Amino acid sequence: MAEIRVTAPAPPDELPCVTTDLKAKAELFHSLHTAAHRPLILPNAWDAAGARIVEETGATAIATTSSGVAWSLGAADGNHADRDEVVRSVARMTAAVGVPVSADIEGGYAADTDGVAETVRRVLAAGAVGINIEDSYAGGPHPLRPVADQASRIAAAREAADEAGVPLFIHARIDTLLRQAGGIGDTLDRAAAYLAAGADGIFVPGTTDPGVIAELAAAIPAPLGILTGPGAPPVTALAQAGAARISVGGAIAEAAYALVRRAAREVLSTGTYEELSGALGYAELNALMRG
């Protein structure tokens, strides 16, 4: 059974204190990004049961998906979820597993750097040892935040983690390619600024082209994260190109919700249950959550 450190999600002002266990998990999480041609593979989770299942399959770490978490909370992705509810969700996932957990905090769930720092303090208290923070600017005048603005938000996250005594892994997401808001040169300029501000790794969703990945990996002096999914080259090809961290983002959540739709439509329309075949059994799931 995984060690349980948070038995129930608490209100943000009552979250458990950061411990030496958290520091050790953060150091372990850092080390998982450095093995040559052995990328950190992250099948993203959005709730405690999913996190436990992913761990049980052999994952060495868990990353949350902001879209999956938001949908499970009844909100849209894109900084629409309530920060307190997201933190509680992270706390439930860290409580359910023994491996390191990295929390996707979207743009920081805050309007300014003080708010970003507070978000980081809360996810650390919830038991996470890594974060994704993106430079997409939902509702802003441009698709991406200005470089200096995003760098200051990353610096605030770094300072908050340092003050807590935890070497938080800051995975700085650059959305130039995903949002078609810049090319390789713009991506590399942002990567340099974010690393200088305190980021530990760079996440560039929007490409699975091995040639582009190789160009990025050669020019970025930090672990490179890639978002993948159906139709992309296999993990081995992405790793050979230079990806150090490979995640599927919200794809598993999307597939799970697609099953909900198919199964509901089937039972309502034909009265049959074929979509439910292959399900995990009640006893197996219950035993898994009991440990």
UniProtKB/TrEMBL annotation:
GO MF, one example: lyase activity
Xref: InterPro entries: ICL/PEPM, Pyrv/PenolPyrv_kinase-like_dom, Pyrv_kinase-like_dom_sf
Pfam families per the UniProt record, alphabetical: PEP_mutase
Top-level taxon in the UniProt lineage: Bacteria
Keywords: Lyase, Pyruvate
Protein name, as recorded: Isocitrate lyase/phosphoenolpyruvate mutase family protein
Natural source organism: Actinacidiphila oryziradicis
